[in-house]
Design goal:
CATH class of the largest domain: Alpha Beta
Number of domains: 2
CATH architecture of the largest domain: 4-Layer Sandwich
CATH superfamily of the largest domain: Metallo-dependent phosphatases
Helix content: 25-40%
Distance between the termini: 36 Å
Radius of gyration: 21 Å
Largest sheet: 8 strands, mixed
Shape: globular
Number of helices: 12
């Protein structure tokens, strides 16, 4: 990314509550993604004629613009300016890596349905204001043939189902991005665009790569980037270097700095680290500090397939950032030795505005542990680890995992 030809995608986002609002959310998001307009979520009954800003090509509605300003403020005294406080709960889940035993369990008479696997965890995803997922197996669909380890291609319905339960964006730069070549990648992108699911980390062309992913969440601008250490030795085809964003230090730092100028919060998804290692390695920690120095605020790590701790880092000026080194497996066919445990990484973002002064705070970073339960590789379900422990499905408790995730913040 970088240069004068960059495009900026700004999506205004506020989570829906009841079922009718969830449907509205999906419909509205399709519109915004297809036509690249600014998105405000409001129930259909409140939508009025749009007001178009000629200078930014952003479409607003009078009612939604007011309804989505989540601020509080004190009373005015003399010339004292009112303090406005904007808040958003930002979150991410770990690896969605669909082995054949998982997607075969989702097969129906007319396709694939993963919703029964996700229904128990849906309330904890949809309660966040903006939720991201690491879609590790490329969802290229049945048209090009499904496949499992070591070269994955998953049913495209996983995109629709994740969207239904509250996922707002898919991070897709990972070591399996090119498992089925550009054909699999482009097939997945076509479906993402068709259903209006924003994505980052893989791209269909240079224009797509240069389009910044910026989201307005409760009047807090959030920019999202995504990178992977590699693609399992599969080279990115010559002339298509844009297709997968690689974890190149200089490029990532430049992208972060470019994004930093346009947003309040920079989120980086990093596919890194050693598989099955429960603590971050030196490379992860070094990259994290470098990215924070460049301007990253929140880093969500993926790839180890197990949960790694959270850490607070500071740049040379004292600005604080949060690093979730790995969120583990959210839904996969892997099991035992912590590989069936994942987590919902969460952090509260607060923007305080008073006149020309603006302050940003990141508070309450945490990981809500989840567990992938099944009965002899059927009836897969993602549930809270606490529930799984209480039912005797696993001997590892949520408290045990909480201690593990917080040990680097003490």
């Amino acid at each position: 990314m970088g240069g004068d030809n960059e495009k900026v995608k700004v999506l205004h986002r506020k989570k829906a509550g009841n079922e009718s609002e969830k449907q509205t959310r999906i419909i509205d998001r399709r519109i915004c993604f297809s036509y690249r307009i600014v998105y405000h979520h409001v129930p259909l009954s409140t939508i009025t004629a749009p007001v178009v800003n000629k200078f930014t090509s952003q479409e607003l509605t009078a009612k939604s613009h007011v309804a989505n300003r989540a601020f509080t403020g004190g009373s005015r005294q003399g010339t004292t300016q009112r303090q406005l406080i904007y808040e958003a709960d930002i979150g991410a889940i770990g690896d969605v890596l669909l082995h054949a035993i998982v997607y075969n369990d989702a097969k129906t008479a007319d396709g694939y349905n993963f919703l029964p696997m996700l229904e128990k965890i849906e309330p904890y995803l949809s309660e966040l204001d903006f939720t991201m997922a690491n879609q590790e197996s490329m969802p290229g669909g049945t048209e090009i043939g499904l496949s499992t380890y070591p070269a994955f291609n998953s049913p495209s319905q996983i995109i629709d189902n994740l969207q239904t339960v509250g996922i707002d964006l898919l991070s897709m730069a990972n070591n399996h991005s090119l498992d089925r070549g550009l054909n699999g990648l482009n097939s997945a992108i076509s479906h993402l665009k068709r259903v209006g699911m924003p994505y980052v980390g893989v791209y269909e062309n240079e224009g797509d790569r240069n389009e910044k992913r910026i989201f307005d969440v409760n009047d807090i601008l959030i920019g999202v980037l995504s990178y992977t250490y590699g693609t399992n030795g599969i080279p990115i085809p010559h002339g298509h270097e844009y297709a997968v964003a690689l974890l190149d230090r200089e490029k990532v730092v430049a992208d972060i700095k470019g994004m930093r100028e346009e947003v309040d919060i920079v989120v980086v998804h990093a596919h890194w680290g050693d598989e099955y290692a429960r603590t971050p390695n030196h490379g992860q920690r070094s990259l994290a500090q470098e990215f924070v120095e460049a301007g990253a605020d929140i880093i969500f790590g993926h790839h180890p397939h197990v949960i790694q701790p959270i850490e607070r880092l500071k740049d040379r000026y004292g600005r604080e950032a949060i690093v979730f080194y790995s969120l583990g497996n959210f839904l996969s066919g892997q099991q035992f030795e912590y590989k069936d445990i994942g987590g919902i990484g969460k952090v509260k973002v607060q923007k305080i505005v008073q006149g020309e002064d603006e302050q940003l705070k990141l508070t309450s970073p945490s990981i809500l542990p989840t567990y992938v339960h099944h009965r002899n590789h059927t009836n897969y379900q993602v549930m809270l680890l606490e529930e799984a422990y209480e039912k005797g499905y696993i001997h590892k408790s949520a408290d045990m995992m909480k201690q593990h995730t917080e040990k680097m913040m003490q």
